Amino acid sequence: MPVHKRVSKWHYAFCIRGVRFRGAIPEARTKFEAEKAETKIRQEVYEGRYGRPTGEKDFVSFVEEVFKPWARENKRSFKTNDKYKLPMICESKCFKGKTFAQISPLLIEKYKKERREAVMENKRTRKPSTINRELGLLSTIFSLAIKYGVTYSNPCREISWLPENNNRVRYLLDEEEPQLFALLNGRRAHLLPLVTLPIGTRMRRGDQLNLRWEKVDFQRNVIYVPNSKTGKDYGVPMNADVRDTLLQLRSHTNRSDYVFMNPKTNKPYADLKKAFGTACRLAGIRDLHWHDLRHTFGTRLAEAGCSEATIAELMGHSDPKTTRRYTHATDRAKRAAVEAVRVLRDGVCHKFATTQERLPKLAAVNA
User: Fold this and answer.
1) FRET partner for 362 with CA separation of 20 to 30 A, picked from 268, 272, 305, 348?
2) What is the pLDDT of residue 89?
3) Is 167 a member of any domain?
4) Domain encompassing residue 337
């Protein structure tokens, strides 16, 4: 059935594969315009795009008007990660001024390549993990846009992430700990409780900075941590050092909801990299990141002889391969094993030498 005019408005009506499609064409003013619009609608039906969102919404506008308010209320990682990554994404030439329909997998590949090859102020390139987090955030934006009917596809699903090297297990050495703690005073005194917690509880930085006093149970000696990575709370037992640190912190706090408050801003700490990096540099400690304090907890569990199951539970691991990074022989365990071989050798050699020394005497007696 061709297009027809009904009360000064053009309409279309046609059947494809036994399905009838009807609708108005309000923008058409002439029969030619109506037929052209009908042809476009038929093509959309054939291609399976009929009735789907057009994706004509501006990407950056959606991020500012919709995604940011949503992320602020629903994403635990917004304060510590997302709000710093979003400007990088929105200011990129790959996305700025583009609609959702204009952002293709090829354009995202271009963004990934540019971020990977760009040289930062420290003359280094970005780590694959940093770029992968940005790609994950970009995918979340598209997923929310699909949910709200703004666009119909997520091009990020066709993009492969960069391979990451997650085998690095740097931890705070026994001889480094007193050197670091000796500098956590004066203008860096606020770092003392902040450093003590991950060493004794394996808490991640984001979980630590978002920790509230209502989650600290001194009666049961447990911290109930809202996990920013999985979204599920987990309980962490407090050892004596952690408990004493929190009790002392509690006695000096102004009864704020958050455990770690910045007295200069009266808000929770947003970042600790600069102060922690300065303390490590002054202490002569190289290549130690904040996340390595969590590795310190896991490594010391392994050195204490804890089972793989115990370490996995206390570290919150779901993948056994992750736990085995700690259960593999540590340097201290290797040194103990090598020393045991030496002691065993000395013991055997000593007994053999003693027997040899006695042989001449025995021979003389027999003579």
Assistant:
1) 348
2) 95
3) no
4) 331-367
